[in-house]
Amino acid sequence: MNRFDSQMGGEARLRYLDADYDVLAPGSFVTCAVTGERISLDELRYWSVDRQEPYATAEAVVKRDLGLA
């Protein structure tokens, strides 16, 4: 994983890959595409490569996939 110093504080811009991500712009968090919740990069576990968006929880992934969000 390409990680920058997470002390940067702002929102990171990432390129989501199959089992990893690249940091395009440094930051300490990303925003869940479904809930709007901030996700620290240390806690980021769920994302869509096709949609290029992060998710806070597995439930958020299911909601997006079912078109509920």
Automatic annotation (TrEMBL):
GO terms for molecular function: exodeoxyribonuclease VII activity. Keywords: Hydrolase. Its EC number is 3.1.11.6. This is Exodeoxyribonuclease VII small subunit.
